[in-house]
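Course assignment 3, question 2. Fill in each field.
Student: A.L.
Task: Predict the tertiary structure for the chain below.
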Amino acid sequence: MSYSTYGVEVEKQNGLVIGKHFNNLDDAMCVAERAVYERGCVWSCVYMPNGDIYVEYEM
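Answer field:
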């Protein structure tokens, strides 16, 4: 399945996973990176519009 947006999933320290969609790759990468390095989340991932993983960040 293909979407027209970039997806971001973030896993918080309590195990809760949150997802959001962005219209451009730069915004998606900024949110995913900040979630791990500035907000203390355990893991985050950016998905391309075709569903492939573009980048992952981990603590």
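Instructor remarks: The mean pLDDT is 93. The first helix runs from residue 25 to 37.
Grade: pending
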